[in-house]
Specification:
The protein contains five helices and four strands; from the N terminus they run H-E-H-H-E-E-E-H-H. It has helices at about 20-30, 55-60, 70-75, 105-115, 120-140; strands spanning about 50-55, 80-85, 90-95, 95-100. It is extended and about 60 Å long.
Length: about 160
Amino acid sequence: MELRAHRVPGIGDDVPSMAQVFRMATDGGAKTTGYAGTVGTLAPGKAADLVLIDWKKIAYPYLDEETPLLDAVIQRAKSDAVKLVMCDGEVIYRDGKFARVDRDGALKALHDDLQKALSDDEVERRKLSKALLPHVKAFYRNYFDPEKHAPFYRQSSRV
C-alpha cells in the first residue's frame, strides 16, 4: 500500500505510482499544450529541457536504500537543490542565478515605477474596493460553519 498526497484517502485504493505522476508532469503535461511532440520527453529533435538537482540535498542526512530514485526526487527535492535549468538547450538558471534576468535592474525598475503617483483610474478602483469590502464580508460572514465543514484532506493539513 502506498500512502501518497495525490490520492483520495482510503485503504487499498489504487493510487498513481511515482512514474505515472512524473509522466503526467512531463509528457502528459506537454500533450495539453501546443508544444506536444516537441517537449515532454528527452529524444533526438526535441527541445532539451532539463533540471539538474544536487543529489546530496535529496539523500542527506539519510535516505533508505530501498527508496526508489524517482520517489526520492519527487518527494524530497526542494528548490534549493536545483543547480541548473536548461530550456531548449539554453541554460537559464545556474547556481541560484537566472541567466537572463538582471535582478538588481529589475528591482530598481519596479521601485522606480512604484514611486509614481496613482492614476485617476487606480485611485477610483481603490476607493471602490474599500467601499465594497464591508458588503463582501457581510455576504460571506455565515457562508459555511467551520465546525461542520470537514474537508477530506484534513488529515494532511496543518489545521
